[in-house]
Amino acid sequence: MVRRNDERRAALVDAAIEVLAAEGARGLTFRAVDVQAAVPAGTASNYFANRDDLLTQAGARVYERLQPDEATIARQRTSGRDRETYAELMRELIARITDYRAGYLALLELRLEATRRPALREVLTERVRADIEANVAYHLESGLPGDATAVRLLYLAFNWLVVEQLTLPDVLSPTERDALVAAAVERIVQG
């Protein structure tokens, strides 16, 4: 029987994200989630039908937690519409992602696991595709310079920049990272 306490379920999914980031997909067990969440043994197995359910919900939760808050969205809507503003928005996005280190590392683990689990691959593919299309739509509605291709190119470039920052943080200094963000926006985004 799958339980319905939404607050407990969210705490267990957050614990699963922490386990994925620290131990990888192979370390993600119901017992490891119980330990991470500091709940009695067997709790996670009461909330998730199986490990695939837990993996899928962990991926969805990471995306949920990476969304900007309402204040950030409101500020973005009233900011300038030039490449300099665009670069600053991208710096903020990268900072939000790298500040949630465990979440992004968990997503990387989920992507690797998806190469072996077709159902998880299908869920992640739909989620990432929807996320990219939502970003393209938001960008086009915002009046910022550039087109859908620019958004997709920046998505690809900045994903690897985030991987670099989270896995090998000493390769690029914060100053170099910021300069690369500005250069990417300047070169990819057309007026």
List the helices and strands and how they pair.
Blueprint: H1 6-23, H2 30-37, H3 43-47, H4 51-66, H5 70-77, H6 83-99, H7 101-114, H8 118-142, H9 148-167, H10 174-188
Helix pairs in contact: 1-2, 1-4, 1-7, 4-7, 4-8, 6-9, 6-10, 7-8, 8-9, 9-10
Describe the structure.
This protein is an all-alpha fold and about 190 residues long. The chain has helices at about 5-25, 30-35, 45, 50-65, 70-75, 85-100, 100-115, 120-140, 150-165, 175-190. Helix 1 (about 5-25) crosses helix 4 (about 50-65), helix 4 packs parallel to helix 8 and helix 6 (about 85-100) packs across helix 10 (about 175-190). It starts with 5 loop residues before the first helix and ends with a helix. The model has no long low-confidence stretch (mean pLDDT about 95).
Bin the helical content: over 70%
Stretches where pLDDT is under 50 for at least 5 consecutive residues are none
Total strands? 0
Strand percentage lies at: under 5%
Helix and strand run? HHHHHHHHHH
Mean pLDDT across residues: 94
Overall outline? elongated
Number of helices: 10
Structural class: mainly alpha
Radius of gyration over C-alpha positions, nearest whole angstrom: 18 Å
